[in-house]
Amino acid sequence: MNKKQLIVMSILISLMLILAITQGLFKVNFEQLVLMDKGISDFKKYDFDEDKYVISLPSEWIVEETESNGQYVSYKLNFKDKNNKITGLVEVINTKEDLDVFAENDLYNQYLEYFNTQIMPFKNSNNAGVLVKYETSVKNGYDFKNECYYLNLEDGKTIKVLFNIKKKQSREDMNIILNTIISSIKVVWKIT
Fold first, then answer.
1. Alpha-carbon Rg for the chain in angstroms
2. Alpha helical stretches, state H, the chain
3. N or C: which end of the chain has fewer CB within 10 A?
């Protein structure tokens, strides 16, 4: 390689590095802008299932925790935004069933009639699992887009996070909020 080729190659590598750094900064700023546009300024952490896991939800949201010592559901947290555009729940479910099979069975066993179903794997920066998307309607004329995430963070425990979004309020940028929340779920490792 001669000197000119080496200089050109160095410049190209430098430009690619600058572009990658700029893109990362732009993505973070864009996500923060979308969150602020939705009225979300900060997040509050919630420890759940005997402090084994943590999730962060917008601090403006109304959250109701209910601990349960049931055989099937060991923890439940309900949430909704201040305008009732998004409602949902977090459950810790005791099951050793395969995540794909469990997600499909959970969808089929729900009470509401559903349509436009999609079951797919998902992966974000911190978690991976199964995502079930479907739509529902209730008698008062409300149509909902539902996204239900299933995570298997520990053997025998499945975390279910369900978001019910009013269809009229559903926009593509809503995925940034959902992804931020799902990315915040972590196992809390305690040293004993």
1. 21
2. 3-37, 99-108, 174-183
3. C
